[in-house]
Every structure is written in structure tokens, then in C-alpha cells.
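Hey, resending since the last one bounced:
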Amino acid sequence: MLSLFQQGLEIVFTFQVLGLIFFGTVVGIIFGAIPGLTATMAVALFLPITYSLSASAGIALLIGLYIGGVSGGLISAILLKIPGTPASVATTFDGGPMMEKGEGAKALGVGIFYSFVGTFLSILALIFIAPTLAKIALSFGPHEYFSIAIFSLTLIITLSTGSMVKGIFSGALGFMFSTVGIAPVDAITRFTFGQTELNSGFDILPVLIGLFAISEIIKVAEEVKHEQQATIQTVKMKGFGFSLKEFFEQGWNCIRSTLIGTGIGILPGIGSGTSNIVAYMVAKKRSKTPEKFGKGCIDGIVASEAASCSAVGGAMIPLLTLGIPGDTVTAMLLGGFMIHGIQPGPLLFMSQGPLVYSIFIAMVVSSVMMLVCELYGVRIFVKMLAIPKHILLPIILVLCVVGAFGLGNRVFDVGTIVFFGLLGYGFVKCKIPQTPFIIGLILGPMAETNLRRGLMLSDGNFMGFLTEPISATFLAIAAASVGVHVYQTLRTRREASVKTAAAS
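The C-alpha cells again:
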């Protein structure tokens, strides 16, 4: 192992490879920070450039784009309340309110530091426990994946602060939109109304851009005529902007969120887009002061960023050990491997040991570069607020349209962001939470596909979902979670009615 580590160091610590990692990390941060331009798009655009590079140099460039792109989303999530990537959706919940309270620099410092910690810890997991964790994930079948999806959908209840009915409605609507297109298993066309563009359903990226970015632009544009001249904030941040006491207070939150992100990252097809929301909800459930979440507390930012960035290392585990991509970006990385004639899998560690360790080291170097670049760029990021909104909003709108169109070169995707932008604006006006909609949209296909596959395996018998131990465990946890939440809600209402009666 030490000799392989030394050979990996020799591969990475050359002027060319370090330069490519730095370039990739910076470009990745920019792509992540601009709403609509994700890490997936960055890797896709730069994949052809790796043709002329060596395998180690080309993969190092793609890794820099990956790590920078996932972390960069926190910048727009905090400064503009628009998630730059799906991995930073939950960061907007507390990052935006902190920005409004004048604590934007602190929010950025917290997000930058814990995105680095989450990435670094997940890389350690990748190095030391990759084969074992990958084998566990490989043992999951349709029954287990369906139960995981149901468990995740029960988080809609937790997300529904204020009105549970509105939260369930939002989640059900998202699930409904996920059924548009060609059905899994039997390939029947559903709810397309003769529009061939709808055969593949709604892509998650245009939906996210519309629901969060376009709706936010419309909402801000509605208020911009009443806007007073904004005062430029002076960034006075010592270190990362938070105290040593706050660092120790967030220790368990960070570790727990990193474990969640790494675990979800290992499961193929889920990725950081789900892990940040799940970790945020778990942090809120386990907090002694859950009422502070959504109003500007660092706990939510720590949970979201640690989880989303730790999914990077988690997604690399099945890619390297089994040749199975954990998310869309690692699917692009798999293409990068194949360009250079490398087949990821168990034999990769034996036949290409130095290359594998060079990937580990490149990930560590990229995460450090990401930390430094984002830390020293904080003052530049905060100055974005000085740009008048009547100038900034059209620029963001154009970038959103370009990002949506660039995904598949379809005008239909531009129409999609407009439609979901109006829908998101309606949600804002009616005070309907948007996040349950996204959870329903993301997990809907996973739940439906694995439900049908599970029923096929058990000849139409639903008991298969209860007889499989892992599946039954997740369903039991989901039922218990719903029961506890309903009990707490009823108890809170009963206590409130008692207090009202006593006061009268």
C-alpha cells in the first residue's frame, strides 16, 4: 500500500497534473455557482479535452471539475437563495436567511469549511472501506430500493412546517409529474398528450432551475421597484467566520451528515441531490431547537454541505470497485475511464494500482484547492450583492436559459423552466413548500420502478417487501417516523388548546 501511495504521489505531483486539477477545480466552482451550470455539464464539456491527455492527467482534470462543481453550488444558494446545483438545495433553507440577517460571510465560511470536511472524510471512506461498502450496496435489490424510496418520501411530513396538508400536496404533485413519459418495465406512454418531447419525462435540472431560480427571479422582480439602494457589506471574517465553540458544537452534526452523504452516495442513482435534503431533515429532527431551522442557523448549512460533498467520495466507491456509477457525474467519469481503455472494477486495484492511488490523491488535492479558492474568494462573492438587481436578474435569467438549453439542446427544456418557474411562484404565493415537490419528483421513478420489479420477483405478492430483512427494516422505520411525527403534532395541538383554555 505504501509503495502504491508513493507511486500515486509521483503521478499527481507534476506541474501538468497539479495545474489541471487547479484549473478543473476553479472552473468547477464557477459552473456550480452559476444556476443551471452543474458539475455534470462541466465534466461533459471537458470530457473531449481529455482525449489528448494521459489517463492520470485526464481523470485528474475531471475530478477537479467534479469536486469544484458540487461545492460551488453553495455560493449562489447563500448569496442569491438559488441553488447552483441540486446538491445545494437544502443550503438555501438557512443560507438565504443568514444572508438577509447580514451574516452572509459567516454562512459562506461555514459552507466552505464543512464542504471540505465532508469531501475529505468521504475520500478517507473511499480509500479504506470502499470494497466492503460497495458489496453491501450491491446486495440491495428492488425490494430494498423501494423501501428506501418510501422511507425518504416520509420525510415530506418533516418538511411540511406549517401545514402538513400543503406539504403532502406538494410531494404528491411532484410524484405525479414523475410519472410523465414512458412507463418503466412495460414502456407504455403516459400523460404526454401527443407531445414526443414528453416521452422521456421532465429532466430534473430544468425543473430545479424553474422551481427555484425562475420563481425566485419573478418574486424578486415583483419587489424590485420598491427596492432601496443596497449597501455593500464589508466582509470582516476571522478565519472561517465561526468560533471554536461552534466548531465543537457541530462535530456530531458534521459526522452524522457525512455518514448519510457517503452512504447515499454509494447507492447508485441517488447522489448528492438527495443526500443534502435527507441530512438536513435528520439534523432538524435531532436538534434540540428545530424551530431555528429555516430562519438562519448554521446547523442546516453544516448538514447540507457535509452531506452533499461527502456524496462525492461515496459515489466513487461503486464506480472504482464495481464499475457502477453512483450518480450522473460518475457516469461521465466512467466514460472518461473508457476513453483511456480503463475498465473500473475489482481488478482495477490489482492491474492499475498506481492509477487508483493517484485518483485518491488527486481528490485530496482538489478538495484542498477548493477550500483555498472558495475561502479567498469570499470577499469577491459577497460583492455580488452590490450589483443592482435590475442588472443581475436578467443575467441570471439568461444563464438559467442557457443552462437549461445546453443540457439537451432542446427548446422544450426552456419552456420547462418557464412552466415550473410559474408553478414555483404559485407555490410561494400560496405558501406551499417547494422541497416536497422535488423529493416526490426525484424518488417517484425509483419507487415505481422498484415496486414493479419487486412484484415481478415475488409473483405479485406484496409480502416480499416485508419478508426481506433490509426492506422490512426501512419500512418499519418509515412507519415509526410517521407515527412519531403525528403523535408529536397532536400533542402540540393539545398542549396549545389547554394553554388557550387556561388563558381564557
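The beta strands are 181-182, 189-190.

Sorry for the duplicate.
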